[in-house]
Amino acid sequence: MMVLSKSPRLRFLTGATLYFAQGIPRGLLNVAMPAWLASQGLGAGAIASYLAIIILPWVFKLFWGPLMDRFQFPAMGLRRPWILGAQFGMSIALCSLVWVEDPMQQLGLMTALATLIQAFASIQDVATDGMAIDLVPEEEHGRINGFMTFGKAIGWASAAAVSGVFLTQVGLGTTALLAGAVSLLVFFWFLFVTEREGERLLPWSDGEHADDVAEPPTVKFLLGALNQVLWSRTSVIVTLVLFFFGLMSG
To answer: What pLDDT, on a 0 to 100 scale, did the predictor assign at position 151?
Structure first.
């Protein structure tokens, strides 16, 4: 069993690996897929609509955090159950793209499945960030951020490059199964990682939560805290900056 709270190297490796897994759907769905669809004759407007829809789940990152704070299973860790669930869901959803036999005729189905994949990826992202905040000492924040960014960049770039080749050579079904298989490897690896010593690997395994784990906050407290953060001056400024940056990127 590998314990995150006891090993800085494991924390860096885990952060990079989980962010690598997040990069897989982005490379496939946000980079390789639009280029491939364009090569198949799909118009720019339809591709733009596809991208606009599949990005939507990332808007709800704001609400995933409070949801995770409220609903916990501390015996397996505060964030680990969410990460495992999201990673598994993302893997299965990637594999489900095999149902799309003709993307040009089944664009709606493909967009729906891609949106589901992105939803799982956004949940995994928030849970991973929360776990890092819980477990990583302040003096390691800079390094863990670097490892996470590196992992996502490698996942994004490699998935885009490999998917671009596979889509043109063997089609969407095989490409999706390959992406899902790599994502599942990350899931099975993380099954053997715990946040703190003594926690359960699985719900039916032996173990219990650490004594220093606080009780989950109430919904009323979370909504109040969220409202306070949303309307702070810093949040408003950052939101506006990101909004205009997004307009230019789009």
So the answer is: 96
The residue whose two tokens read 């004594």 is 211
* Calpha distance 161→150 (Å, rounded): 16
Q: 159, 32 in Cβ contact below 8 A?
A: yes
Question: How many domains is the chain partitioned into structurally?
Answer: 2
Q: Are residues 114 and 199 in the same domain?
A: yes
> What are the beta bridge partners of residue 3?
194
Considering only 140-144, 162-166, 199-203, which range has the smallest mean pLDDT?
A: 199-203
8 Å CB contact between 84 and 192: no
pLDDT of 81-91, one tens digit each? Answer: 999 999 999 99
Q: What is the pTM of this model?
A: 0.84
Summarised one tens digit per residue, pLDDT across range 118-150 is 999 999 999 999 999 889 999 999 999 999 999
If you write DSSP's letter for every residue of 119-173 in order, what string do you get?
Answer: HHHHHHHHHHHHHHHHHS-GGGHHHHHHHHHHHHHHHHHHHHHHHHHHHHHT-HH
- Separation CA 38–CA 36 (nearest Å): 5
- Alpha-carbon span 70 to 64, nearest angstrom: 10
Tell me which residue of 57, 100, 49, 90 sits closest to 185, measured CA to CA: 90
CA dist list (Å): 201 to 46, 67, 147: 44, 22, 25
Tokens of 47: 């591709």
d(CA 132, CA 144): 8
82 lies in which domain range? 2-209
* Pair (237, 200) in one structural domain: no
Instruction: For residue 219, give the amino acid letter.
Output: V
